Amino acid sequence: MRALREVPGRLDVERVRKDFPILRQEVHGNPLVYLDSAATSQKPRAVIEAVSRYYEQDNANVHRGVHLLSERATQAYEAAREKVQRFVNAAHAHEIVFVRGTTEAINLVAQTYGRTRVRSGDEIVITVMEHHSNIVPWQMLCEEKGAVLRVAPMDDTGTLLVDELERLIGSRTRLLALGHVSNALGTIHPVRRIVEMAHRKNVPVLLDGAQAVPHLAVDVQALGCDFYAFSGHKLFGPSGIGVLYGRSELLEEMPPWQGGGDMISSVTFEKTTYNKLPYKFEAGTPDIAGAIGLGAAIDYVRGVGVDAIAAHEHDLLTYATEALREISGLRLIGTAKEKASVLSFLLGDVHPHDIGTVLDREGIAIRTGHHCAQPLMRRLGVAATARASLALYNRREDVDALVAGLHKVREVFA
Ligand code: PMP
After folding, report:
1. For labelling, which of 13, 29, 68, 360 has a CA lying 20 to 30 Å from the CA of 376?
2. How confident is the model at residue 2, as a pLDDT?
3. What pTM does this model have?
């Protein structure tokens, strides 16, 4: 494998680590090794400072005030929207709707697009690898409408069976909703090909990008998707803020979801008319600081370089995969050819929670459980897995610490 420093234009991981104050601490007397970024990522100082600067200098409500602070807050909030637009290459800033996170984005589409388009007997297609956030909103919709949820299968490596998926898309399909990257297995789906395939049958596509945006360059126009959802907190931004990208034509047709301030154009007791995009979908005071923090996170990611991040993580994933494969009794769950930054595994018959607890004593943070993907766990025939997930600030030493920690787990449970 190539040494990190030999590659030109490479991400300097030690410099990156200095930007994340939280990483400089000990946990149970050991240096923190944070391998849980798929659950939530850590925040660079630039994000923390952008949020506190906003509260210290500009805090005011947006869109409504004539005073200077309100103007500044509005400007910063809308500038954040434009940063998101450029980050995912949306055609227009008004195609970017600020929401609480991926979960809310998907619920918004289910409750607006879904409720107006889906009728009894219609079908929504998802995959067996989806996070509960991309299952339950569709189930709720299907229950209400008498519609049917169809589930595309995968093989034992965690690779989506695209031909099977294609067969599921029929004349009753109203939407295909799938993850861009699986949170439990790390599989990167060939979403561009899948979108083309669905569009040939006139079926719109929602992509759950929660696990993709921190690792891959995303271009919604090149992907051709109709909706794209992601969360700020997984992209080194604050929690409580996320994004729904939707193509203008679809967003225009969709009714609003929540009613309240800012989403209206005029209100009388007889009739309310709605605001233009994107405000029609942003009822109430939004998470202004969150949006500004997300904008700062995007500036940070672009500053490091999306391609440099992807290359760094790819090397690290290869290194980690090889290292874990050498641990006797360790079974990697999810070995698709195209993967991003996630290593799910089992170790002998040690319960994943026990793995996590022993590692925690060593200062190593991983996630254990069903990863909000219970149907996937059932398909795999396991109740839970241990999951280490990587981000731009992880280095080979973190992987080495994980391997040493897993040897300790084996000793404890021998
Ligand atoms: N989809 C995927 C693939 C995820 O990994 C997650 C978060 N684990 C979500 C959706 C939900 O994101 P949030 O909780 O930020 O709304």
Report:
1. 360
2. 38
3. 0.97
Structure token digits, residue 104? 């809310």
Q: Which residues contact 290 (CB under 8 A, 6 or more apart)?
A: 51, 98, 232, 237, 238, 239, 240, 241
**7 CA from centroid of ligand 1 (Å):** 33
Residue with tokens 């209206």: 264
Residue in the block written with tokens 């409580």? 240
94 pLDDT above the threshold of 60? yes
**Candidate list 372, 377, 382, 403, residue with the active-site label:** 372
Strand partners, 271: none
The residues lining ligand 1, judged by C-beta closer than 6 Å to any ligand atom, are: 101-103, 131, 133-134, 179, 183, 208, 210-211, 231, 233, 372
Q: How far apart are CA 405 and CA 313, in angstroms?
A: 21
Q: What is the pLDDT of residues 35-48, one digit of tens each?
A: 999 999 999 999 99
What is the amino acid identity at position 201?
A: K
- The answer to whether the beta carbons of residues 310 and 216 sit under 8 Å apart is yes
Highest CATH level, class, for 13-43+305-412: alpha beta
Residue having the nearest C-alpha atom to atom 12 of ligand 1: 102
C-alpha closest to that of 161 among 170, 171, 153: 153
Q: Look up tokens 């929602």; give the residue.
A: 206
Ligand 1 atom closest to residue 234's alpha carbon, by position in its atom list: 15
Q: What is the mean pLDDT of residues 297-311?
A: 97
Residue nearest to atom 14 of ligand 1 (CA): 103
- Write down the domain spans for the chain: 13-43+305-412, 48-303
Mean confidence (pLDDT) of the chain? 96
CA distance 61 to 55: 11
Residue 225 annotated in active site: no
Tell how far CA 375 is from the center of its chain.
Answer: 19
Which amino acid does the sequence have at 78? E
- Tell whether domain 48-303 is in CATH 3.40.640.10: yes
For residue 106, what are the contacts with CB-CB under 8 A and spacing of at least 6? 133, 134, 137, 177, 206, 208, 229
Tokens found for residue 241: 């803020």
Helices (H), 240-394: 248-253, 288-304, 306-325, 352-361, 374-380
As given in the structure block, the two tokens for residue 52 are 């506190």
